[in-house]
Amino acid sequence: MFALCNLAIVPLRFEPSDKSELVSQVLFGETFIILEKQEKWSKIRLTTDLYEGWIDNKQFTPITQEQYTILQNTAKMYCADLIDYITGANALLPIVLGSDLTFLSFTDINNQELTFDGTLISGTNEKTNLLKTAFLYLNAPYLWGGKTPFGIDCSGFTQMVYRLNGYYIPRDASQQAKIGEPLSFIEESEVGDLAFFDNEDGHIIHVGIIMENNYIIHAHGKVRIDRLDHLGILNIDTGRHTHKLRVIKKII
């Protein structure tokens, strides 16, 4: 079975319960495969990053396999505004930055005749554009499992910044750390490269986007800018290191 998210921001949970941990979010227009369906909940696998979790059955609309295939073979169109809205005959639906609007072009899928008049982004952009996109999320509050300007976690932030520029990377920091080319020194890095940080057990727990002049933008309490050195992240407000540097990766 295949489906499409027809609401702005839908929680993806670890277990089939409203009380369960938020593991990620499904944004408007994102497609997924239904792996298991219960009375109230469905276990799904997102198309873009293969992330799995449970979603409420009232918060998506089914599509056919043919429609699903068409959407996967069509260039993606994303909302480039922090917040905007979709209109229709009987609808006014708010959406956020990164919502997938690809299906609006297909009348058989967009049977409610929804329209969007805001700013769209598509295709692959230059690596230098990553930072411009990252600044759109500046000061977004930290939210475990979040993917939007109203709440986002560290790997959701890097994933969405890359996605809006046409590059698709995994959901979690530990997964993102497994791709790309490792760099030996900070001095070898470019704007847009990813820096990863580990805990005392050696597990990757944090990621941020490298800026010029040894600065980094990352989600920690909020999306913020701090200093980056050979030890890790130096909080510019407290003057203390908050994360221990493990590796820098050139993804593109």
Structure, explained:
- By secondary structure, the protein is mainly beta.
- It has two domains: 2-122, SH3 type barrels (Roll), CATH 2.30.30.40; 129-250, endopeptidase fold (from Nostoc punctiforme), CATH 3.90.1720.
- The chain has four helices and 20 strands.
- It has helices spanning 65-72, 129-135, 154-163, 173-176; strands at residues 2-4, 9-13, 22-27, 31-37, 41-46, 52-56, 61-63, 77-79, 83-88, 91-96, 120-122, 147-148, 151-152, 181-183, 194-198, 204-210, 215-220, 222-228, 232-234, 241-250.
- The strands form six sheets. The protein has a six-stranded antiparallel beta barrel with strand order 15-16-17-18-19-20. Strands 6-5-4-1-7 form a five-stranded antiparallel sheet. It has a two-stranded antiparallel sheet with strand order 2-3.
- A hairpin with a 4-residue loop joins strand 16 and strand 17 (215-220).
- Helix 2 crosses helix 3 (154-163).
- The longest helix has 10 residues, at 154-163.
- It is globular, with a radius of gyration of 19 Å.
- The model has no long low-confidence stretch (mean pLDDT 96).
Key terms:
252 residues; mainly beta; SH3 type barrels; endopeptidase fold (from Nostoc punctiforme); 2 domains; six-stranded antiparallel β-barrel; five-stranded antiparallel β-sheet; 20 strands; 12% helix; 39% strand; globular
In the CATH hierarchy, the third-tier topology of the largest domain is known as endopeptidase fold (from Nostoc punctiforme)
CATH class group of the largest domain: Alpha Beta
CATH architecture annotation name of the largest domain: Alpha-Beta Complex
Helical proportion? 10-25%
Low-confidence blocks of residues = none
Instruction: Strand order, main sheet: write it out.
Output: 15-16-17-18-19-20
The first-to-last residue Cα distance is 34 Å
CATH superfamily of the largest domain: endopeptidase domain like (from Nostoc punctiforme)
Secondary-structure-based class equals mainly beta
Q: What is the N-to-C order of secondary-structure elements (H for helix, E for strand)?
A: EEEEEEEHEEEEHEEHHEEEEEEE
Beta-strand residue fraction: 35-45%
Computed CA radius of gyration, to the nearest angstrom: 19 Å
Using DSSP, what is the number of strands? 20
Judging from the principal axes of the Cα atoms, what is the shape?
Answer: globular
* Mean pLDDT rating: 96
